[in-house]
TrEMBL record:
Keyword vocabulary terms for this entry: Actin-binding, Cytoplasm, Repeat, WD repeat
Family affiliation: Belongs to the WD repeat coronin family.
Region span, Disordered: 130-201, 595-615, 711-740
Main localization category: cytoplasm
Biased composition annotated in UniProt, kind: Low complexity: 142-152, 163-195, 604-615
Localization in the cell: Cytoplasm
Domain named DUF1899: residues: 202-267
Organism: Balaenoptera acutorostrata (Common minke whale)
Pfam families the UniProt entry points to: DUF1899, WD40, WD40_4
Protein known as: Coronin
Compositionally skewed regions (Basic residues) per UniProt: 723-738
Residue stretches of each WD repeat: 326-368, 369-401
C-alpha cells in the first residue's frame, strides 16, 4: 500500500500482515527512489493511513505521520528530522493544500481547473484551538465550548481546529497514558479513566488473563536426547499424546514403533535403543484413555486400531502383541477421540469418509456416522458427551447425535481454505471454535453457535500467514484456548466469550526455536500456589520441555478462586460404555483445587492503602553537607571494621613509649655533646680519658662536659648503656607499630 506525501515527496510502503514500514524519497531524476529509513512494528499491520500535514508538530520537525491499524489498537508512527534550533523550518514545511474547496461541482463540470488554495504551516499564521475529540471528554466546560462554532470565512482553514500534538495520539494499548486513574474496573482490576472507558466501549472488555506469562521450566524437568522421532505425522494428528504420567510419541523407524516415556523420570535418555511398542504399521494418530493411564490406542495406515497396555512401572521391554485390534475401516485412519464421560468408548475417522464409534470392552463397532463428502479434518466430542462435531474438507461443519441418527443433525459453512482445520467445543458447549484457513491461506479462528450452524460464524479472527494448521487446546475452567502449529515458535492465547467481542487477546508465548508439538496437560498438574493456570508439554526435535502459564498476582499467599474454579474430575468415568449406548447421560464430579492451608482471596481481609515511602532523595535534601560527609565516613569505617581477617600489624606487641623517650633523649644529648667537644678541641690541649666523638679513642681528646656529672660519661658503664640505647632489642625493633611511631612525633 503506497502512501505519498506530495509536499515532502516521502513515500511510505506497507503491506498487510507485515511488521515493517519502508520510507523512500521520490525524485524526478534518477535515482527516482532513495531509501530513507525502515520502521519495525511491534505487531502485524492490518491497515495504514496518512495523517494530513496540518496535524503535524512542525516545531518538533515532524515531517510525516502515519497511523498503523493493528489487531487491538491504532498506533501513530512519526518521522522527525533532527534539527538543533527549535523554530519553524521553512525548508521542511512548505505551504500545503487547505481543505476549502476550490470550486463547486457546476464549475468543475463547466471546465474549471482551479486548485485548492494552499495554507502556511507556520504556527504564527494560524490559530491554535485546543484539541477536541469524542473519545476524550474535556476536563470541564469552557465558555468557548458553550458557544457555537463560527463558520470559517475567507482563507481560514476549518481543519486547523483539529491540530494536536503527537502525545494526544496514544495507542489504546497503553490506556494509562490517557489520564489519571479515577475508578476501579471490575474486569481488569486496574484504574480506568473516562477516556479509557470510552476506549473500552469501542475495543471491548479486557481479559483478566491478558498479562499471562509463559515460561519454560528448568532443564532438570526436561527429557533430553530424543532420537529418531517421526515428525511427519499427518496434519490431523497432534504428533504425540500425553497424560499426567506418560507421553507417547511415534518413531521414524520401520514397523510403526511408539516410544513411551515416564514424565516422572526426567533427564537425559540413554544412547542405547529404547523399548518400544511394535505397532506393525505407520502411525497416523494415537491417544491415551482418559480413565486408564496405562491404556493407549494407536491408529495405523493399515486401517486398524491397536490397543496397548503399558505396565504400571513403565515400558521396560519391547512389546509386539497389542491387547486388542479393532478392524472395520477400509481406508487409512485420520484421528482418534475418546469419549469424555463414558468408559471404553472411542470415535475414529477415516479416509473412507465415515466416523465409527467403538466399544473397547467388547472390541466391536457400535455406531457409524455418514454424510461427509470429502476428507474429515477433525472431530470433537461435546463436554456432556451427547454430540459429536466434525469439520470437513468440503467446507462444511456438521453436528451429530450418534445415538439418534447416523446423519448430521446440523450443517453449516466452514472455513474457505482446504489446507486443514480443527474443531473444539467451547463456552460450556454453547459454541464451536474452528481453526482453519481463508481463501488467501491466512490462518483464522471462527466461532459458531452450536444451536445455529447454518447462520454462519458469530465472529472471525485473522491471525497470520503460515503453512501449518493451528492446533487448539481448550481449558473449560478459564475459557482460554492455546493455539499453535507444528513448526511454529509462537503460542496464541485467547479468552473466549459467547457474546461480543468473542475474542479477548492475552499475552502470547514465544519460544526460541520451533516446536514439533504442543499439548495441554490436566489441570491437576498446575501449581496453584504460583497461580499456574495451565501446564503444557512442548516437543522439540531432541527434547521434551514442560511450559507453565502463570498469572502475576500480588497476594499469592491466598488461593486465587477467581482463576481456579472447581474443575471436572476427568480421570473418573461417569458412565459405562453399555449405559451410554443405551441412552444414559451424566455429569462429571467437580473437585476444588484449593489447598487445605490456603484461604480464598475472595475471603481475604481487605488491605488499607499502602503508604508509599518517600524517595531517598527527600532524606538527602534535608541533611547538610557535613552530615552527609559524616554518614559517608561512618559507612566506610563500618565497612572496614567488618573485616573478618585482621591486618598483620594488628597482632604486633609494639614498644613502650617510655623506652622510646629514653632512647631518643640519650641520642639527642650525645649529638649535642659531640658538637661541643668538636668546638673545644681547637682551643685546649687538656688530656681526656675518652671522647665520644673520637672514632679511635685518642688519649689527647678534649675533656667532655660530662665530667661535671656524678658519673663520668666516659666510664665503661655509661658507654655500655649508650650502646644499648642506640641498639634496641632486635625482637622489639621488629614489632614496632604504627601507633608507637606516631607517638614519637609530638615528642620531637
Amino acid at each position: 500500500m503506497p502512501l505519498l506525501d506530495p509536499d515532502s515527496r516521502l513515500l511510505v510502503l506497507a503491506g498487510k500482515g507485515e511488521s515493517q514500514l519502508y520510507c523512500y524519497e521520490v525524485a524526478p531524476q534518477q535515482p527516482a527512489l532513495s531509501p530513507v529509513t525502515q520502521c519495525l512494528l511491534e505487531s502485524a499491520l492490518r491497515g495504514v493511513a496518512l495523517v494530513p500535514r496540518r496535524a503535524l508538530a512542525v516545531m518538533g520537525c515532524e515531517v510525516l505521520r502515519v497511523l498503523q491499524l493493528s489487531d487491538t489498537a491504532i498506533v501513530p508512527i512519526s518521522y522527525h528530522v533532527p534539527r538543533k534550533a527549535v523554530e519553524f523550518h521553512e525548508d521542511l514545511f512548505p505551504d500545503t493544500a487547505g481543505c476549502v474547496p476550490a470550486s463547486d461541482p457546476h464549475a468543475w463540470w463547466a471546465g474549471s481547473n482551479q486548485q485548492v488554495q494552499r495554507v502556511s504551516l507556520h504556527p504564527a499564521c494560524r490559530p491554535h484551538p485546543s484539541f477536541t475529540s469524542r473519545l476524550v471528554p474535556p476536563a470541564g466546560p469552557t465558555p468557548e465550548e458553550a458557544q457555537p462554532a463560527e463558520t470559517p470565512v475567507g482563507d481560514a482553514d476549518p481543519s486547523e481546529g483539529f491540530s494536536s500534538p503527537p502525545s494526544l495520539l496514544t495507542s489504546p494499548s497503553t490506556p494509562s497514558s490517557l489520564g489519571p486513574s479515577l475508578s476501579i474496573s471490575s474486569t481488569s482490576g486496574i484504574g480506568t479513566s473516562p477516556s479509557q472507558r470510552s476506549l473500552q466501549s469501542l475495543l471491548g472488555p479486557s481479559s483478566k488473563f491478558r498479562h499471562a506469562q509463559g515460561t519454560i521450566l528448568h532443564r532438570d524437568s526436561h527429557i533430553t536426547n530424543l532420537k529418531g522421532l517421526n515428525l511427519t505425522t499427518p496434519g490431523e494428528s497432534d504428533g504425540f499424546c500425553a497424560n499426567w504420567q506418560r507421553v507417547a510419541m511415534p518413531l521414524l523407524s520401520s514397523g510403526g514403533q511408539v516410544a513411551v516415556l515416564e514424565l516422572r523420570k526426567p533427564g537425559r535418555l540413554p544412547d542405547t535403543v529404547l523399548p518400544t511398542l511394535q505397532n506393525g504399521a505407520a502411525v497416523t494418530d494415537l491417544a491415551w484413555d482418559p480413565f486408564d493411564p496405562h491404556h493407549l490406542a494407536v491408529a495405523g495406515e493399515d486401517a486398524r486400531i491397536r490397543l496397548w497396555r503399558v505396565p504400571p512401572e513403565g515400558l521396560e521391554e519391547v512389546l509386539t502383541m497389542p491387547e486388542a485390534v479393532l478392524t472395520g475401516h477400509t481406508e487409512k485412519i485420520y484421528s482418534l477421540r475418546f469419549h469424555p464421560l463414558a468408559a471404553d468408548v472411542l470415535a475414529s475417522s477415516s479416509y473412507d469418509l465415515t466416523i465409527r464409534i467403538w466399544d473397547l470392552k467388547a472390541g466391536a463397532e457400535r455406531l457409524r456416522l455418514q454424510g461427509h463428502r470429502d476428507q474429515i479434518f477433525g472431530l470433537a466430542w461435546s463436554s456432556d458427551g451427547r454430540q459429536l462435531a466434525t469439520v470437513c474438507k468440503d467446507g462444511h461443519l456438521r453436528i451429530y447425535e450418534p445415538r439418534g441418527s447416523p446423519e448430521p443433525l446440523q450443517e453449516g459453512p466452514g472455513p474457505e481454505g482446504a489446507r486443514g482445520a480443527r474443531i473444539v467445543w467451547v463456552c460450556d458447549g454453547h459454541c464451536l471454535l474452528v481453526s482453519g484457513f481463508d481463501s488467501r491461506s491466512e490462518r483464522q479462528l471462527l466461532l459458531y453457535s452450536a444451536e445455529a450452524l447454518a447462520s454462519g460464524p458469530l465472529a472471525v479472527l485473522g491471525l497470520d500467514v503460515a503453512p501449518s494448521t493451528l492446533l487448539p487446546s481448550y481449558d473449560p475452567d478459564t475459557r482460554l484456548v492455546l493455539l499453535t502449529g507444528k513448526g511454529d515458535t509462537r503460542v496464541f492465547l485467547y479468552e473466549l466469550l459467547p457474546e461480543a467481542p468473542f475474542f479477548l487477546e492475552c499475552n502470547s508465548f514465544t519460544s526460541p526455536d520451533p516446536h514439533k508439538g504442543f499439548i495441554l496437560l490436566p489441570k491437576t498438574e498446575c501449581d496453584v500456589r504460583e497461580v499456574e493456570f495451565a501446564r503444557c508439554l512442548r516437543l522439540r526435535q531432541t527434547s521434551l520441555e514442560p511450559v507453565t502459564f502463570r498469572l502475576p498476582r500480588v497476594r499469592k499467599e491466598f488461593f486465587q478462586d477467581d482463576v481456579f474454579p472447581d474443575t471436572a474430575v476427568s480421570w473418573e468415568p461417569v458412565l459405562s460404555a453399555g449405559a451410554w449406548l443405551g441412552g444414559a447421560n451424566g455429569q462429571p464430579r467437580l473437585l476444588s483445587l484449593q489447598p487445605p492451608d490456603m484461604t480464598p482471596v475472595s475471603q481475604a481481609p481487605r488491605e488499607g492503602p499502602a503508604r508509599r515511602a518517600p524517595a531517598s532523595a527527600l532524606y538527602l535534601e534535608e541533611k547538610s553537607d557535613q552530615q552527609k560527609k559524616e554518614e559517608l565516613l561512618s559507612a566506610m569505617v563500618a565497612k572496614l571494621g567488618n573485616r573478618v581477617d585482621p591486618l598483620p600489624q594488628d597482632s604486633f606487641e609494639g614498644v613502650d613509649e617510655d623506652e622510646w623517650g629514653t632512647w631518643i633523649r640519650a641520642l639527642v644529648w650525645e649529638d649535642l655533646t659531640c658538637a661541643e667537644q668538636q668546638s673545644s678541641c681547637a682551643t685546649t690541649t687538656e688530656p681526656a680519658l675518652w671522647s665520644p666523638c673520637s672514632a679511635t679513642r685518642e688519649a689527647t681528646a678534649v675533656r667532655s662536659p660530662c665530667t661535671a656529672m656524678k658519673s663520668s660519661p666516659c666510664s665503661p658503664q655509661l658507654e655500655k648503656a649508650h650502646a644499648q640505647q642506640r641498639r634496641p632489642n632486635a625482637a622489639k625493633k621488629k614489632k614496632r607499630t604504627q601507633k608507637a611511631t606516631c607517638s614519637m612525633i609530638p615528642f620531637l
